[in-house]
Structures are given as C-alpha cells and as structure tokens.
Design goal:
- By secondary structure, the protein is an alpha/beta fold.
- The protein has helices spanning 38-41, 55-59, 112-116, 134-145, 167-174, 197-208, 234-244, 269-278, 293-308, 323-328, 345-359; strands spanning 4-16, 19-26, 31-37, 49-53, 67-71, 89-91, 99-101, 125-128, 151-156, 180-183, 192-193, 212-217, 248-251, 255-256, 266-267, 283-289, 313-319.
- A hairpin with a 7-residue loop joins strand 6 and strand 7.
Length: 365
C-alpha cells in the first residue's frame, strides 16, 4: 500500500545531482522533508502543491527521513515527443514511476556493436560489497596506492533505484574519484545504463576503460534477520558475474565493531552467506592485518569462511599502514548505519583493504 499525502512546498533546502530536498507543509500544518527527482517531477518552486508518498517515512524505515514527491499536478514538466528519443530501456518497470533510458547495451546505443559479443573483462579487478557505504572507503584504499586509478561504480538494484539519491556518488564524481557510474537492473540514473550486472561490468571495462570496478547496491538495503532474506545476496551474484566474464573478483567483507546486532558484529552473516553460499567462483577475500582483538576475531571468521569453501575463496592479508589517514581524507563523509569513522573504524578499514588489494592488481601501477 501507499500512504498518500497532499502538501505544499514551502522551502528548498538543498540540491545534489538530480535530487532536491524540500520542506513540505501537510494539510495538518506539519512540515516534513520531501525529496524530489528533477527528471521525474521537474524543478519545483515554493508554493506548488505536491502529492507525496509518506509510507516509509511514517513507518520510520530507511528512506533517509524523506517523503517522496510523486507529482506536482499543477506544475507538470513540459511534455516531449518520446518518439524522437533514443533508447527504449524501461526501468522501475510497470510501476507508476517507470522511466525510459538509453541502455549502453541496447540496439540504439553507439556502444552496442562493441558490447554485442563482448565476453571478457581481461582480468579487471571487480570489488564487490554489500553496503553502499563501503564505496568511498574502498576507493580511498585504492587511491592511496594508485591515485590516478580509473574507477567505475556499478550500482545494483537492491537498495535505492535512482542513482541521484546518493549524495556519496555525487560527491565522489565531483571530486574526480569516480570515472563513471553505471546503473543496472531496475536501478537508473547513472552515467551509463545497463540491463544487468554482466553488461554493466563489460561497459565499465570496454566503454569507461576502468582500471577497477566496484559493485554494490544503492543506498539502503533490506534485511529480515533470516539467513537468506536480505538484499545483499546480490553481492554473491556479482562475484559470479565478474568471475564468469574473466574479471578478478574481490569480496569486500562487511564488518562492524559497533553494530549491536550479534549477526553483524565482527564478520556480518551477510558476507558469510553471499560469498560462502551464493558465490560459486574463485574470489579473493582481503582482511586487515591488525592486532586488535576484534580484528583478530574477524580474521579467524574470514579464515573459517574461506576454509569452508574448499579453497574457492582465498584469504588475503593486507597491511593497513596509512589507511586511517586515507579514510579521513575522503571527499564525502564516511557513514554506515548512522555510524561515522570514529564510531566504527573497522567497518571502513575492512572496505579500504579491498581497495588496496585491488590496487596491487592494476597493471602498470
């Protein structure tokens, strides 16, 4: 179900990429934060009436504390002749908000011929992570060793579908830390659009010319506290895609020293399931070489995970010298589940060592 609310825009709070945060006053007089996507509802002025979806906000779920602007009935974007547009790839399909984009891999794309029979990533390192929050930490570890590395981010559809929701991606692009973003599956709004992870990775290699690709879901993830009921199983599927296509899969571990939930403290059960059970091809598993008690425990958990796969997963110990400084220098704030670097350092270190390991695999580093 959808909880519909009518409201009036009273203030423009902030903008990033193609997203705008508004203050919106409900009929009750309450003012709430509302998020509008310019490509969908246009750039809205103060005073316009909007229809909001407030379902997740009212339930206190992970939408970033926003209501979502569905439409401004009296201020619709100017119509265009869609028959003149290139591309026919529809994303968020069969929902009221479905959108049409030009897929890098579809017939209308100038890259179609290059991708039509493409089948090889040429050994490109592909770092796979569960959470979107790992992205800047991974790139920090990579750039600390290879400052000029070309990085492509492949965003899967396990979390937010619009790329524009991510302030992290916007900040990394502005800072020159990302060469390109690629939205795959039902996700949309990247610099390039692709049908699935496979063609997204091929586009990262052949179109972007990336040295390294990072695959992770968008902001927000779904978990149910069950062994299999979480959106991060897509991390294992991404490892498979990278391996099948001749890339070099690297499994970035989800780790926490501050999460109150036992299933996520130390090595998260998400990583154990996604990499140990869903992934079926060889992959490297970088772990930080640290002497702290919890880091030692994570090392033993990661060792047990790798041993349980009969050698399919390879444990790689990575030195952490200089990573604290690199992480503190990221151009975007580090935050995972509302915790910053000082609150959950090991989480970000575990992501950064995946980037540092990938750096060792970049040719001519």
């Amino acid at each position: 179900m959808i909880q519909w609310r009518s409201a009036v825009i009273t203030e423009v709070h902030s903008r990033w990429a193609g997203a705008v945060e508004y203050a919106a006053e409900l009929a009750s007089g309450e003012t709430i934060r509302a998020l509008g996507y310019v490509d969908i509802v246009g750039d809205l002025p103060v005073g316009v009436r909007v229809l909001l979806n407030t379902t997740a906000l009212e339930r206190g779920l992970g939408t970033g504390g926003f209501a979502i602007v569905v439409a401004a009935p009296d201020h619709l974007p100017e119509p265009v002749d869609v028959t003149d547009l290139t591309g026919h790839l529809v994303k968020a399909r069969y929902t009221p908000g479905q959108t049409m984009v030009l897929g890098v891999d579809e017939q209308d794309s100038p890259e179609h011929a290059r991708l039509r029979d493409a089948d090889d990533l040429g050994g490109m390192p592909v770092i796979v992570a569960d959470l979107h929050s790992a992205l800047p930490a991974i790139i920090a570890g990579l750039r600390e060793a290879v400052p000029g590395a070309r990085v492509a981010y492949v965003m899967t559809d396990g979390g937010a579908l619009p790329m524009d929701f991510s302030r992290t991606v916007a900040g990394l692009r502005d800072a020159g830390w990302l060469e390109a973003s690629i939205s795959v599956g039902q996700a949309y709004g990247g610099d390039l659009e692709a049908v699935n992870v496979h063609t997204g990775l091929l586009a990262a290699h052949l179109v972007v010319g990336a040295d390294v690709a990072v695959v992770a879901q968008g902001p927000g993830n779904l978990g149910t506290g069950t062994r299999w009921g979480f959106s991060g199983t897509s991390a294992g599927e991404a490892v498979n895609a990278a391996g099948v296509l001749g890339g070099h899969p690297i499994a970035s571990l989800r780790v926490s020293e501050a999460d109150r939930r036992p299933r996520h403290r130390g090595l998260s059960h998400h990583s154990a399931t996604a990499y140990g059970r869903v992934a079926l091809v060889p992959a490297d598993v970088p772990v930080p070489r640290l002497t702290e008690d919890l880091a030692t425990y994570v090392h033993s958990q990661a060792r047990a995970l790798c041993d349980s796969t009969g050698g399919r997963l390879k444990l790689v110990e990575v030195d952490c010298e200089g990573l604290d400084e690199a992480l503190r220098a990221t151009p975007v704030p580090l935050s995972t589940m509302g915790r910053g670097f000082e609150d959950d350092r090991l989480s970000f270190i575990a992501a950064a060592v995946a980037g540092r390991h990938a750096a060792s695999l970049v040719p001519n580093r």
